Amino acid sequence: MNSSDKIENLFKEANVNVESDVDNRILGDALENLQQPDAGSTSDRINVWRIIMKARITKLSSAAAVIIAAVIAIMFLNGHASVALAEVIEKVKEYNTLIQYESRVMTILGQDQPFMTTDVKKYVSTEYGAVEEQFDQRGNLITTVYLLREKQQAIVVLHPPKKYFVIDLDNTTLELQQGFNAKGYVEWIVTESETVKLGQKEIDGGKVEGFMAVNPKAMAEMAEVSNGMFPIGDNTWKLWVDIETKLPTKIEVDFVMNKGPMTNYTDVHIKAETSRIEWGAEFDESIFEPDIPDNYTKLDAPSSPK
Amino acid sequence: MKDAILVKNCKKGSAEALSRIYEKYRDYLLILAVALSHDVNMAEDALHDVFVNFAKRIQVFELKSSLKGYLATCIVNRIRDMLKRKDRNNISLDNDRHDTTDSNEPSQRIICNEQLKQLAAALSEIPIKQREVIAMHIHGQMSFNAIARSLNISANTIRGRYRYGISKLRSIMNVEVRK
Predict the structure, then answer these.
(1) Average confidence (pLDDT) over B67-80
(2) In total, how many domains does chain B have?
(3) Shortest CA gap A53–chain B (Å)
(4) Which entry of A4, A70, A92, A201 is 20 to 30 Å from B26 by CA?
(5) Which one is predicted more confidently, A151 or A56?
(6) ipTM
(7) Taking CB atoms and an 8 Å limit, are A27 and B51 in contact across chains?
(8) What is the mean pLDDT of chain B?
(9) Residue-wise over A69-99: b if at least 16 C-beta within 10 A, else e?
């Protein structure tokens, strides 16, 4: 058999088996453009999501991270602090570092059991930036995100697929992304004019006072940006502040991402709870040096989510 | 249903028509993309971009000959662009050149059979321009003239690329057999 016959045979016998979420994603995006032929930029703005979604285990948790970050980014641009919480915001400004521990639980709306639960440890430095490590329930590291202030870059490392990508950030975006931590959460809740007082209770032996914002205005603004990817449903934000120290000890975020390409066309309920915050924590600055194993593949830089 | 009718219905905004085109040509285009790129992730991205752009431009699209050939040419062009971009981004081939058609990778959502893996591996040894012509001629069953028209290159150049490509594949396969 000559080589062209052999190639012909290989082509004839070649076969692919495609998972349904590949079809959902491609057809979903194509249909969006078919029905709105002037919609424009789906191909570009889907880029970052395509990369994230290839790592099945990380895609929705990444969506949760991004949505929270984006909301906080918008919140930074809005509103004025209420009198009661102004003290809190002044207090957290005294600290240049912190470590926060967060859990994220994701459930398909209407189902009892979550399909994914992760634990997050985040190091934040006003000077260097932030590093977020996300673990699955067996303690395996699944994502690391570096936000590097000096280099003005975000580096996202996806561990199960052994891939990473680098996003260059402009000054404004960097400042906004930097707010994605307990300090930022406080600013966000404080700047929401419709904050509701939840009263006092005890957490770990300490007396705390709670504040809550429900479906804040900024989420509607966020929805305008994100509707094509993850339409935003009901959302609630709670902040618990230690009465003595005036420092937040617990932050709860609860929201629904409605059907969209990012959620594989299902409604997803996400609960993120920051239950421990070490204000002024000391840690080695070397943690902000990206640790990317040699066998990881660099992906093309995605466009920033719009 | 004939492609011309499906395209016509797509222009009217029919989601069903677009879905049927996708279902009809998905595997064919994916095999072509994997064979050209030797990379299932890139192949998936190329298929995505081609269908999104097809839908986006459906109002101005005119079906002049074969829809299958048109979509295949789009895949070829998209993969060529992606490979160029990959080179520009200076990804080290020595370190990263691995068989990304391997189904053992945990994030894999497209599984290639052994024949497709062999095919992509063999084609990856020859230049992309020769790979394109061989894939379009053998897999796409396009004549040299049709390939020439779709790539806007002379038919003689296309024949030359095919001849050189097949010749190189012969050497590569002979070496593999001897091993």
Answers:
(1) 91
(2) 1
(3) 9
(4) A4
(5) A151
(6) 0.83
(7) yes
(8) 82
(9) bbbbbbbbeebebbeebeebbebbeebebbb
Whether chain A has a CB inside 8 Å of the CB on B41: the answer is yes
Give CA angle at A21 (A273, B61), nearest 5°.
125
Structure-block tokens of residue A250: 């617990």
Residue in B with minimal Cα distance to A28 = B52
| pLDDT for the residue numbered B162 | 93
A-B contacts at Cβ under 8 angstroms: 148
B102, closest residue in chain A (CA to CA)? A16
Residue A7 pLDDT class (50, 70, 90 cuts): confident
User: How many helices and strands in chain A, by DSSP H and E?
Assistant: 9, 13
Asked if B129 is an interface residue toward chain A (Cβ–Cβ < 8 A), one would say no
B78: containing domain:
3-178
| Partner residue facing B30 (CB), from A9, A16, A31 | A16
Nearest to A133 by CA among A92, A99, A106, A179: A99
What's the rounded Cα separation, in Å, for the pair B55 and B40?
A: 23
CATH number at residue B147: 1.10.1740.10
